[in-house]
Amino acid sequence: MKKSLFTSLLLGVLLPMLQGCLAMLAAGAGGGALAALDRRSLGTQTDDESIEWKASARVNEKIGDQAHTSFTSYNRKVLISGEVPSEQMKAEVEQIVAGVPQVQGVYNELAVGPISSFSARSNDSYVTTRVKSRFVDAGSLNAVHVKVVTEAGVVYLLGLVSQHEADAAIQVARTTRGVKKVVTLMEILPDAKVRELDLSMPAAAKPPESPPAAGG
Question: How far apart are alpha carbons 53 and 153 in whole angstroms?
Answer without folding.
Answer: 24
